[in-house]
Write a structure and sequence with these properties.
Length: 376
């Protein structure tokens, strides 16, 4: 009898406790559901909440990145229509310009055998976005898909451009592999010819570095002397004071000494050639590759067997060579970047382009870093 009474009392206590706790549990569940609704949707009653603002900033950053990638796709399409191949060096001005935003870092364009891929990140989110354009081997055109975005880890960077790669993007490009339906071409590059190019090797209307530009408004970070001609001993014409703005008109890269790559074993890579599309090129231990000017995005102009062409940096330019390496850079190229400039007073002359002394106004090099606070 006593046990029955104890069980009854215990049951009453438990039921009473549940009755007291249940409303609070229901309230907590409703609060969690409301929070999930705020995070997952743009509800009109949470416009001022911190959660909404955080996700709104991310949404805006993603929209900015997608708009940039769509602009890159349009610029690439125009370049391919004119040249028959894509490029990794689009500019923010001129015929093949694309629209970018200051909050983006990138975009970085990667050329592969059957596609090009553009990736970009943004300062306001840990997400990054990319767009892939596949080659249609029947028409020779590239068809860009819609930009896709995803989270990325700080450890997931490319070795060359240090661009973020999505950890779980909605759609990742396939591995490079062979072109679909179009075998790579092979060309006879002629007999071994290790004669270096004539020096100085001059490339007109160009610049060096990622996202570089050689026209527009620049700023001097320190005193810069403009000379009458593209020679270090040419007569000075005028001086640009530190913090002053001036105009860059054009630029040439002078290769004073070519870089040298040698090979211990045969190595094959693929390069774009205008009249033949993608062409295999095989280097042998008998060959010397002369490296000329750096274009950007891991691409250079080089000299091989008497021909000058564009290709990728497939060697390691930063690590000392070892006996196990297939190829090795034994000497880096020595170049000078001459820029034609005009002062605020209308004087014109040539300066040596030096990122320590000038800011170029490119999307990766804003002139504000060299302007004095009063002139910003």
């Amino acid at each position: 009898m006593k046990r029955t009474i104890i069980y009854v009392v215990t049951a009453v206590v438990v039921i009473g406790g549940l009755a007291a706790v249940l409303p609070r549990l229901r309230q907590r569940a409703r609060q969690v559901a409301a929070n999930l609704k705020i995070i997952g949707a743009d509800t009109g009653d949470v416009m001022a909440s911190a959660t909404y603002q955080r996700f709104a900033a991310r949404r805006q950053a993603v929209a900015v990145m997608k708009a940039t990638l769509k602009s890159v796709a349009a610029a690439e399409s125009a370049f391919v229509a004119d040249s028959g191949r894509p490029t990794a060096m689009l500019m923010t001005e001129g015929r093949y310009a694309f629209v970018n935003d200051k909050s983006n870092f990138g975009p970085y364009i990667y050329l592969q055998r059957d596609r090009w891929v553009a990736k970009t990140g943004n300062n306001h989110t840990t997400m990054s976005c990319m767009v892939t354009a596949m080659l249609d081997t029947t028409t020779g055109r590239y068809h860009a898909g819609e930009p896709v975005c995803g989270e990325w880890s700080p450890l997931e960077f490319t070795g060359s451009a240090k661009a973020p790669i999505p950890s779980h993007p909605a759609s990742e490009p396939e591995s490079p592999g062979e072109p679909l339906g179009a075998p790579r071409h092979r060309r006879d590059w002629g007999p071994v010819n290790n004669a270096p190019p004539r020096i100085p090797f001059i490339v007109a209307e160009t610049c060096e570095g990622e996202g570089c530009t050689y026209r527009g408004t620049w700023a001097a970070c320190s005193t810069v002397v403009a000379r009458k001609d593209k020679r270090p001993d040419a007569a000075p014409v005028f001086t640009i004071q530190s913090g002053a703005r001036f105009t860059a008109l054009t630029a040439d890269v002078h290769v004073l000494e070519p870089g040298v790559v040698v090979f211990r074993r045969p190595y094959t890579t693929t390069i774009p050639v205008d009249e033949a599309g993608l062409v295999d090129i095989t280097f042998t231990p008998a060959d010397t590759l002369f490296v000329l000017n750096y274009i950007g995005e891991g691409q250079v102009v080089w000299r091989f067997r008497g021909s000058t062409m564009r290709g990728d940096v497939f060697w390691d330019p930063d690590t000392p060579p070892t006996a196990a390496d297939t190829m090795a850079l034994v000497r880096a190229a020595k170049t000078v970047w001459w820029v034609r400039v005009r002062s605020a007073a209308g004087q014109e002359g040539w300066i040596v382009g030096d990122y320590q002394k000038v800011a170029t106004g490119g999307y990766m090099d804003e002139i504000e870093r060299c302007l004095h606070p009063a002139k910003r």
